[in-house]
Amino acid sequence: xxxxxxxxxxxxxxxxxxxxxxxxxxxxxxxxxxxxxxxxxxxxxxxxxxxxxxxxxxxxxxxxxxxxxxxxxxxxxxxxxxxxxxxxxxxxxxxxxxxxxxxxxxxxxxxxxxxxxxxxxxxxxxxxxxxxxxxxxxxxxxxxxxxxxxxxxxxxxxxxxxxxxxxxxxxxxxxxxxxxxxxxxxxxxxxxxxxxxxxxxxxxxxxxxxxxxxxxxxxxxxxxxxxxxxxxxxxxxxxxxxxxxxxxxxxxx
Length: 253
What we know:
It is a single chain. This protein is α/β, with parallel strands linked by helices and 253 residues long. The protein has one domain: Metallo-beta-lactamase, Chain A (4-Layer Sandwich). It is built from 7 helices and 14 strands. It has helices at residues 33-43, 61-64, 67-74, 90-110, 187-200, 220-226, 234-252, and strands at residues 2-7, 12-18, 21-24, 51-56, 77-80, 128-129, 135-136, 139-146, 155-159, 164-166, 172-174, 177-179, 204-206, 213-214.
């Protein structure tokens, strides 16, 4: 088993080579599709059809944006948690999707990346859904670990023999410090997910926005103690701003 690491538009991309076939541990940005295909064909010198599985850990633009196009180009199976297709459903969901795309551009700007095409269909159409503890099809050494909190459908992926785990956005890097991501939609579940990954005692932790870490070096206790106690997302932020505004107006009158 070999894990190839690529630098995506705003996130780390992990391409697994195992049992003479390939798997993407996430669906990438829409802007990353050509890079992934070029890497498979030119660096690994393999046909695109060797990509057999794409796992979407959650629906944010840097994790799901390239999934449909990569499936179209490679014929890979697309898999996600059952809740993923509903994440951006309805008017509120489409609004959240537009905000998340803008946030992706903001992060890219902070990283010095130019604007490029990252829009994608916000309604995922997976070929199969994954449940906690399930073995990944075609990759029997890999196991699904359900780690909600950032969203209601976050998945982590554990390579059992080597005890390496990909946790997507369970943690991010801000000012060179590992911290909780934004948003945190379910804070209680988020802390439980951190504890669960800690209890697995992984040898290595792979993240979308943090360099690979030895499991013993990840500050799980600090992350759990400093994790928000209330949701931090677009809707709560907007509601709090409105409440503060109205509160200020009330005091003025």
